[in-house]
Amino acid sequence: MRRLNRKKTLSLVKELDAFPKVPESYVETSASRGTVSLLAFSAMALLTIMEFLVYRDTWMKYEYEVDKDFSSKLKLNIDITVAMKCQYIGADVLDLAETMITSAEGLVYEPVTFDLSPQQRQWQRMLQQIQNRLQEQLSLQDLLFKSAMKSSVTALPPREDKPTEPPNACRIHGNLDINKVAGNFHITVGKAIPHPRGHAHLAALVSHDSYNFSHRIDHFSFGELLPGIINPLDGTEKIALDSNQMYQYFITIVPTKLNTRKVFCDHHQFSVTERERVINHATGSHGVSGIFMKYDISSLMVTVTEDHMPLWKFLVRLCGIIGGIFTTTGMIHGLAEFFVDLICCRFRLGAYRPLEVSYRTLGDYSILTLIQHFFYSSFLHIYVKILHVLLCSNCLKSSFLIRVVDFLIQTFFCKSLYQFP
Questions:
Q1: What torsion, rounded to 10 degrees, do the Cα atoms 276, 231, 93, 279 define?
Q2: What CA–CA distance (Å, rounded) separates 151 from 148?
Q3: 121 alpha carbon, distance to own chain's centre
Q4: What is the pLDDT of residues 213-223, one digit of tens each?
Q5: Cβ atoms within 10 Å of 404's Cβ, excluding its own
Q6: Transmembrane stretches, by residue range (predicted)?
């Protein structure tokens, strides 16, 4: 009994085989089918390679949420060169909470020459070209995120030659820990001193002829330092045409969490709007000469994650490509053969045997059966369905209507189905 049940189970499984095998001796090969198969395999190979490249590639996914971390400190990274001597200028931060952060807490004043060496000038021009491309094509920012921690440091390279002139500028570089509120980082004439009502700069001790706020921003960023990341103000250079020039940068900071294959850190993107004008109290242009960077922090936080295609999705897409090409090429080849037969009139050339059947000896449903066996195409099958409806509705009982149908078939398919007496 167990053997009989096992045999019944095996026979049932064989009957459920969805992939019947046709013996090779029953398969008819042709040059057209071989050509279509070759094209199909070539398309499969090409699309498979392209799909694999897409699978290996990654893209950046952006998610937005409210920034709930408002009590932590924010690091301000600075590397600015001003065309004035270090003893004449001072830099500090004053925020809306009336908290003053002086440059002594993390900034270094280094006397340098304002003019760059040839190698440094080449580096700056390259950085400016990258900035122009970033403004034109914002999608390049994704490449910078993915290249973080893999690229070389974007800081200004050291000078390769010794300057012949004494230092005429001051390089202010370092970092400051600031509060996560709106504030103002500025560089102006005179050293900053604390004051009960705010703060002040000792500008009266500096001669007006020494004013020159031409400056170069080699680096300016918020958050952790990341090699390979280029910020909007990096490479900026301004030449003052007047000693009373005031430069203003209005900055909007967006807290950003960067999560890639190489790095996971808190980075802060920002956008900037520039404005400059000459201070002239006689014409109503009031203010203080200097460099002012007013920043504000957005309440939204952006999470940037490097994402890639999962393996199961790649396999599903690969199966879809292979199966789709097989099915599509088979349909195209079948349609091509059908239209070739139709155009060349293979019925009239004797490729198929004529039907020696008399109309009077056949009933309506026998004629329908012959039509279904004769026309193998799906288009003709639709036509047979229409004819079946007409026969069932007794619309083709007259010999005249049947002759009209035969004339239409003979016109379009080059063959008469029946032999009328």
A1: -10
A2: 6
A3: 33
A4: 999 999 999 98
A5: 12
A6: 36-55
